[in-house]
Records
---
Amino acid sequence: MIDMFHVSKSYDGNTKALDDVTIKIDKGEFLFITGPSGAGKSTLLKIIFGSESPTEGQIIIDGRNYYRIPRKEIPPLRRRIGFVFQDFKLLSNKTVYENVALALNVMGVGQREVRRRVLRILSYLKIQHRANFSPMSLSGGEQQRVAIARALVKEPAIILADEPTGNLDPELSIDTIELFKEVNNKGTTVIIATHDKSLIERYAKRTAHLEAGRFTY
Amino acid sequence: MGPVSNALYFITDALGSLRANTLTALFTSVTLGFALAIFALFALLFMNLNFALGTLGDRTNVVVYFDGATKGAEVKKYSTLIEAAEGVRSVTYVSSATALGELKSEFGGQDLFSGIDSAMLPASFEVMIETEYREPEDLAGVVAGLKKLKWVESVEYSAEWAATLSSVLRFVEVAALAFGLFLAIATIFIITNTIRLTVYARRDEIEVMRLVGASDFFIKAPFFIEGVVQGLFGGLISLGLLLLWRWILAANIPDYLSFMVVLPASTVTLLIILVLAGVATGVAGSFISMAKFMKI
Ligand SMILES: Nc1ncnc2c1ncn2[C@@H]1O[C@H](COP(=O)(O)OP(=O)(O)O)[C@@H](O)[C@H]1O
Ligand SMILES: [Mg+2]
């Protein structure tokens, strides 16, 4: 599903955020990308998401080569990927419902269908009672659920999550990972970037470890 | 979902955003209205002033004197020949008697000319020149052409007047162009900066929309609609200001300043022009302000 060949990424020309990274991620896989802060985890996810392009190497998603992705091909790519951002990126001037609905609206889904799917995902994540609130009035854990709801509502083929447990207490962290496992059980490819070792130890899942932009298996 | 529900979504979104940012939107419309009104007022003054100066040009006349006594038939023939010459708009025959009458009325008292016989004043043709031939060089050409007619004795005209008029017209034109350009740049600058406020207020939204897979079209459409709505109101406001200007000044200014208030077109024409200009500026402003945020 996702193939990266000798991908390198340098933001400023000398230091490499990613250095000759090669990885193959199959459809339906559950993968942890680990490594200390600054190792290049976020950069890797951004390259898959098309918000950064590799300096060198190839990235192939669903048989399409996305090295130097043309601007107009980014939206279709992102509609197939649900990204849970580290800082959530929720809009404070919109309600929880509107934030989640945006992911479907940009795809041109009809309003009745939008309503049905948004309410279903909100109740699945147990935040339906917050639908008409601003995300800013919610707790950190609730905000993260909204971010996850927005990523899941379009039923993407791939879920990318950047430090999804970074702001949560241990109990909520486990809930969150369990949620991703559930999604993964339904066939969605899940890739989680985290520096939380205890999390990885708890789940016997495939793990790719980054150090200074290189994989050390 | 079809284009209809898509359009519905954009319109709902744009109106929602206008409602959420009423003050900014209102501020943009009013600014746009003032900018357009100032620009329109300038255009109006320029057009009226230019027209007034153009009528001054009608005073550019050339007098043709000719040999000997003329009979009625010859006057007609000469007049036709002069009229056919290049650059001539119209010809008026001034007989000796008429010339004396004009002279007398010009100087008021009749006594001064009591001893003068009308035969002592030569008859002439007063020639009006076409607008395009009033520049000094063109005028000299027209005069040279008239001099070639063999029965013409002399041709008189004021080269000085022609030169002064042409330099005044040129000065007004250059000044208007420079000032108009300055106004246009200032207007665009003010408008894009005002609209940038609206776009800036939504920059997070633009970023998030892109992140969840919105196409450029999807992101731009609501701003386009907002630009249209704001431009529409801006156009209406500018027309209101223009009419207000006329209403306040019309009753209070002397005749010779009437060029400041005469509208060169009907209210409906002005309405159409100003609203179209408003919408064009609004949309252009939206897109220019947005370009920066589209790179995200
Ligand atoms: N936008 C950027 N501009 C410049 N350098 C960056 C940028 N983003 C990340 N980096 C650098 O790239 C390296 C990897 O960063 P990142 O991918 O965020 O690591 P991680 O997510 O593992 O903490 C770091 O050295 C970081 O400073
Ligand atoms: Mg990171």
---
Amino acid sequence: MAAEKNYYTIDPQGKLQCVKCGVPLIKGKAKFMYLDNGFPVELPVCPQCGFVYVPEELALGKVLSVERALEDK
Amino acid sequence: MSQIQERGSTHVYKVNRISKEEMDSMVERCVYEQPPFCSAACPLKLDTRAMLKAAAEGDFKKALLLYEKIAPFPLILSQGCEAPCEKACRLCEVGDGVAVRAIEAAVARFGERSKLGGVFRTKKRKTTAIFGSGLFALFLAGELEKKAYPVTVFCEEPDLESFLHCETAFLDEEAFELEARRLQGKDIQFVFGCELSPDFFAEQRAAFDVVCASEAVAKRVYLDAVCIPELMFCEERQLVMGFGEGVMAAAFGAKKAALTVDRLAQKLDPRNTRGSEGAVESRLYTDLSEAETLSRVPLPAAGYTREQAAEEAKRCIQCHCEECLKSCAYLKHYKKHPGLLAKEIYNNTQIIMGDHQLNKPMNACSLCGQCTVVCPNGFDMARVCSGARRNMVSTDKMPLAPHEFALLDMLFSNEEAFLCRPQPGYERCKYVFFPGCQAAAIAPATVRAAYEDLCARLDGGVALMLGCCGAICDWAGRYEMYDKTKDFIDRELAKLGDPIVIAGCPTCKKELSEHESVQLTGIWDVLLELGLPEGAKKLERPVALHDSCGARGDEQVQGAVRTLCGELGCELVDTPYSGDRSPCCGYGGLTAYANREVAQEMTEKCLERSGEAYVSYCMACRDRFARQGRESHHVLELVYGTDAGAPPDISEKRYSRLTLKNDLLREIWQEETAEMKLDYELTYTDEARRMMDERMILTADVIAVLDGFRETGEAILDSDTGLLIARRRVGNATFWVAFTRGGDDGYVVHRAYSHRMQVVKREG
Ligand code: SF4
Ligand code: SF4
Ligand code: SF4
Ligand SMILES: [Zn+2]
């Protein structure tokens, strides 16, 4: 099977904790969806409750530019 | 809370809100691409303007390159041309026209010839012959050589010099020498000393694919030869021939003849696909108001020197129509004239699959109508952009992101913050005051003072309506939403007994004038009737009055505000961009939301006019000028002696509207209002506030996130910064708030951001 393509990957490196579950976030699989388009990514995710964290740099950087591009499709 | 449906990407149908024909006729109006008058008058279509520019810059090499495009023998043409361009030069209207011909002569003499640097030109296979001599034959030989036809010239003259001498007596010796050398350098075959008799001609012509002759020879070999002057062709005899007298007739004739040869060589009808030939009328507009009435650089008998020619070329004012680009920051930003921009924007609306690259420009126009006033032809860019926006909405291709904040803000004005009440003691009112959403958001105290004053001084009852006129969805191209808003306002007015609307904002007045059966006036008119109230703040010094784009074309509003300002003691500074020509502050058309950079440039453009304090009669203008650090007053602030103070941020603008509504309900109508209180404490760092304003995040959004956190306990802790970070999806966006706990039961907000994409966990 071909390696799965992820559009973005961040590893929380143990610096982030889920407040509700009291466990560290780990690198997990997530998906961005916008205007009927989906992109697989790897983001910090809580292994228990599934909280997916989108850091500020990502939201204002890559995410914003992809949003703009899709909006003008 | 209200929500607006985000568009999908599958639902596409075509509804054209502007037809192709309509668009073409609009694009046509822009004369930017019309030739300058000199080129239009030149039958050879020299790009005179560009040539003069190059010469003025001292770049004679480039000037010559441009000139040689129409003149295979530049010295001959420039010394002999009758120069119709000179009479057409617009400078003739204020002084001497540019001495184009003399400059051309200097360019031809001093311009360095660019070498074709070993470019190998393949000759065409079809062969051509020219019988005779004289200017037409010479020029035609030059044209055909340029088109890479093998050319053979049969002439009576014994050698090249005598051939060149024919009809060029006006050349000085040096020019003759130069042209002789140029002729030698061309790939033209000569057969000298021919006896150009009918027999000789008949014998030779069969060897060539296309044959041409000077007029004299043509008439000698065929007594009945008749030339069709548009084609330079005798159809009967299949002979390309000369016709007419003078240097220009020869040069233009040779040009037409060369095209005919081209068509014939391809076995095509020489009448077809010739394009525009010869002199044309130009519709170009040139502003001569700043043109100096200088006279020509005196022309010495020997012609201009290089320096003199450059000097004279500098007098060319480079005719261009840029009236709109000079006055509109948006057009200037995109550096495109409206004819072109409109075409591109229209095409943008026709794209079904693929990138809509013109979305941004289409949404950056403030729809202010200034271009239509300053353009000599009334070009209406606002109509183009607003039609395009509606088209994008109707085909479900309009992104919501650029306008969503403004649209939600409008819904807020017309739902949560909406207020409509008759004056206490009246069931039906003669008037209703409609201050406009921005007035309530930016200067609530002024709105209140105005309302109380109107109630006190007008008979028949004055109702109050706090809401948005619908300009926001109109600007966004959301026509369905606009119709709904319009109906809503009409229903509310009906409840009050259809009173006369006293608009507090020129844009509201304009929007409301679209409602049938709504009687309208402006608060400025009412105030002129009633006289200034007590407590009016006289501003006895020069101020720049900024006319609102909503008042464009409405002389009455512009005039009334001027009178009002006069009564307030203001000394008004009017500039060429006052009144109808006034630029937009950047709020119009939702530019401030869709394209902040352009909006900023628009504000700067407005403030360029004067260094004085600004007085405006639209609250949005007042706000944008104050934001820019300029002393800025709304005329109603002066009238009522109120001061809205520092410009509010986006959350304060909402808070003001809600507070105004609740205060008035309690204090004027004695109604209970819901407490707007949080059951926990919330504070913001300065940085968070700044960030929120910049990122269009409301305190309401932050509260939604924290409410969510209090319910679910969902958040993460960043051990690097010690910040808790929670999120919540509100409408079409996810908001993130980074905070710390503070006090007993409270939070300090440090950062906030958002994104529109949805993010979900993925299994596997
Ligand atoms: S003012 Fe602008 S829109 Fe009007 S003709 Fe000139 S370039 Fe075109
Ligand atoms: S002044 Fe220059 S641009 Fe204007 S008509 Fe004359 S040559 Fe053309
Ligand atoms: S911003 Fe105003 S002046 Fe500029 S193109 Fe748009 S409507 Fe015309
Ligand atoms: Zn968890």
---
Amino acid sequence: MIKTIASVSLPVDEVLEIKKHRIIPAGGVTGKEKRISVVTGIHGDELEGQYVCYEMIRRINEQKDNLTGIVDIYPAMNPLGIDSITRGIPAFDLDMNRLFPGNKDGDMTEYMAAYIIKDVLGSDAVIDIHASNIYLTEIPQIRINELHRDWLVPIAKKTNVDFIWVHGASTVLESTFAYSLNSRNTPTLVVEMGVGMRITKKYGDQLVEGLFNLMREMGIWKGKTKEPRKPIISENPDDVTYLNAAKSGVFVPNVKHWERLKKGDHIGSIIDPLKGVVLDKIVSPVDGILFTIRDYPIVSEGSLVGRLLREEVVRASEIVNEQISKNDREQVNENTRDYMDGQKGEF
Amino acid sequence: MRKKVIYEIKSLYRDNFRVTGYEFGEGEESVCIVGNTRGNEIQQIYVCSQIVNRFKRLEEEGKIREGHKILVIPSINPYSVNIQKRFWPTDNTDINRMFPGYHLGETTQRIAAGVFENIKNYKYGMQFTSFYMPGKFTPHVRMMKTGFEDVELAKKFGMPYIILRNTRPYDTTTLNYNWQIWETNAFSIYTTATNVIDKASANMAIRSVLTFLNKEDIVDYHSHDGYISEVVDDRDMISVRTKKAGIFEGIVNVGDEVIKGQPLANIIAPYEGHIVETLEAPEDSIVFFAHDEPITYANTAVYKLIQREK
Ligand SMILES: [Zn+2]
């Protein structure tokens, strides 16, 4: 069932509508079902969630009998932005993710934000899918405000992402979609993956597996799901090293995304195509894994070219996960092969 | 007058990005005046240019009092102005949402940090800025309610209004807010226009700044004292919102006195020409802000009114 959750007339012969697709169990609802909401497109240039929405609906429809709860899919919270390759809300030049919880008596943008919150509020889990931005590629990860750590990390672990990043609280973030819902007792996870303006099917499939796993744990799905991979969890700001461009120029990478690096490894160069010289050679300041890498080549002084998660954190997670895996293996004798595939992340 | 580069970044293909400042007088860091942070704030640059021009003469005439240093930065963001884009050319970030900045951060954080480090210790900070919605304002001084704001001091500008803004989460990264946190007496000054030059309100702003500085014994300048400012809490302002979208036909202007029930604007059906909505004044009031674009969206606050004292 496709429903319009907010609607507003534009000046000339056009109505702006925000729509959702609700899927309910084949036998109807009793009112006791759990509900998961999958939301994307708050930033109009982040498209990774488009494929996830499609694939969720496709798989559910294929095995409709396995659906035991409510799935709400919201593929386009900022339709004008998606249509015009604009991150924010066109004409207003506003970041939609700084408008929540919105205001029904406010302007058009605040009004839409208020209706979005009204519709999503009360979900048993909300997944807000972002795609970094057009400059940076991100490994599938969930970002959690430290205020909601204890509540959200256990849910995030079920979603098959590679990395959970618990970050510091900031007043600016209080106007985000996720904060507005989390502070109103609706658990909301922010997924960042891939890169703006593109679809990385591999990541989409990975997250879809995770969302089905989460749905199964929530009692929304009774079909077979795969064991989620064990994410690396970072809770300490010192775990992450930022690499900012020291010079303005063109960034050419020398390593791959999600590569384990040693201190001193050559990450990439900033070159000057006019003079034909290297302006800056970027080397890894620490041992670690490169979970963010710059995709868009042009950089100004200060532009982010990558983020590294320090080796100790990666190692610590691996040791914990090996221990968990060992315990799990002793308990679970069936489906061992599936499970091990899950560990390696090969679906 | 001493011209100096406050902050500079090398670009790959463009001329260096430079923030240029003009210093007058010598002594304690008394007054810092900042113009545009966004690419469409042309009036804000213009006002600063005229202030630089006036200070140059005052300095030559020995009318800047001893012991005071004044710094004017007409533009924190010439790059955006030159390509006629509101926000930062590459990543569309707003420099006025980056304060106090971060030296090791992204480009606009570095610019904010590089500028703020040079201006954070001034006793008085004045910023010419603009509203996020297109429209005209009655000239006013705006202060954020941080607990540090000094309304009596703001009255020395002699502007018609002092608006007290209740801070919202995203305000904490503006220059005005951070100046106040660093104990600078910070004022945002709004003239009528943004992307066009409005000489009348520009002149009023220049006179207001000079009047303020004269009253604070920083420059020697004599003119009339301006207005006895009315102090208004932004929450007490009356917003008149459209119910319908369409072509906007404004009837009244900023500064106009209107009576309850008086038509303020018509919204016209864009294809068929009839009036779909007439907005009326809900109270006897003064027009403080007026939308000035030819179209409007629904639910848009196209007028902000200040109720007339009864
Ligand atoms: Zn996003």
---
Amino acid sequence: MGVGWPRNDVSQAVLKRKTFQKGKVMRDPVSKSHLWKKPCWEKYFRVKTPGEAVQILEELQGESRVIAGGTDLLARMRQEGFGVKALVDITCIPGLGEIRSEDGLIRLGAVATPKDLSQSSVLREKAFCLAQAASQIGTPQIRNLGTLGGNLCNASPAADLAPPLLIFEAKAKIAGGKGEREVPLDSFFTGPGQTVLNPSEILKEIIIPELRLDASATFLKLGRRKAADLALVSVAVLLAMDRKERTCQLIRIGLGSVAPTPIRAKQAEAFLIGRRLDDRSIQEAAQSAMRESQPISDVRASSQYRREMVGVMVERAIRKCLEQLEGKDV
Amino acid sequence: MSKSVIQMEVNGRSVSLEVEPDEMLVDVLRERMGLTGTKVGCREGECGVCSVILNGKLVPSCLIPAMKADGGKILTVEGLEKDGELHPLQKEFLNKAAIQCGFCTPGMLLSAKALLDENPEPTLNEIKIGISGVLCRCTGYRKIIQAIESAAKSVRS
Ligand SMILES: Cc1cc2nc3c(=O)[nH]c(=O)nc-3n(C[C@H](O)[C@H](O)[C@H](O)COP(=O)(O)OP(=O)(O)OC[C@H]3O[C@@H](n4cnc5c(N)ncnc54)[C@H](O)[C@@H]3O)c2cc1C
Ligand code: FES
Ligand code: FES
């Protein structure tokens, strides 16, 4: 079943191209499916503190992996047939799955599951589009087992939680041997499957501001079917406007599945800011977003189709935000 | 490789057994405990036939290292019947003929159980989402949905 239906195909198609360039043997998951191996590891640690995790990761440089839900990692180990010395399970670290709001900021623990996010009253009230995105990930089973941190650290261009977090200008709090650091999510992803994390660091927390009262935000995902499907294109938009003039005061556009990493459509944003929000300006912004995306073709959709859909979805998302703003009394 | 002893409560019975660090929960259930009601399909989280309820949550046991389940409470399809009597969901699956080959049935039953535990009065759409993580290769889902609808009624009454 998983055979004709590769899951991480967006990133894998890109990754594959890269391995090919490096002169390594290209792996074809379809024709070599009979060779898929059972993922294996020699030790399994269930750590109780981030420090403990970092220590083990440092000791076993490069030969150990963090496992949160394992929904990406184990499937990938199986498809690519690699084993490691140790897995470090961080889901038992007390408090690492908490979702709290304090002083206008929302703190999301790295091992919060999509289910936690979609049901969180804090998010439903103050960052609804993130709860929306979480409720559309995979299947009920995957939403119970996967995690926010895994979704981001796996760094798939199709990670559903990335676009909504990008429009909130989220910060990633990272713990490592030399202490903690904070990185804007915008510079967290460095390529398909790649992040700024070094092998002994873990992502602890994502921090976002609450949605401004006079703004609205939305998330739209286009898949081939409703359940268990990665996005062909996903779009998150955050919008605030001057109500009298109907001019755009604040706009952020996050895109998934259409570039090597999740991205912001910054030219489209720059075009729209200060402009009157009408059919023409919205359509032009959508076209600008299309030009900024660099989608690939794979088994699920062609790059032309994906690019076309960027335009459609960006326009739709901006209109949806507008509708929400018009319904709001501020 | 060093084995470790894990403790779990499976279908109300407490068990402790030695597992390899990279043994998966689904294999421990099937191969070591003989609970072959839990099926194996894709081993990648896509098809849902390996679903079990772990600490109240529906999860794919093919993606769970047994070590992760240490200390956990697990319900498999074998644990649905009580004192020789089938669970209302099982009865309705039979009544409505919601089973053809039966391969997806354990996953469907546990999906429905997890759904009804959380939401005793699901709408049609909520039922569809509830079972969306299990692929049925045969039935076309309609009878499964009908069975869950009537089981929900009989659980409530
Ligand atoms: C059937 C199926 C459907 C899916 N559908 C979707 C979907 O619709 N949308 C979507 O976005 N994704 C989807 N996914 C992918 C996946 O489930 C999600 O990305 C999930 O959130 C990953 O979380 P995890 O905890 O399971 O990650 P893991 O597999 O545990 O980890 C993924 C990677 O991140 C690293 N990692 C994890 N946590 C940390 C941390 N805190 N610090 C440092 N490194 C870390 C791991 O080492 C690993 O390399 C799907 C997967 C499956 C199997
Ligand atoms: S076997 Fe676990 S989801 Fe398919
Ligand atoms: S009855 Fe055959 S797979 Fe569902």
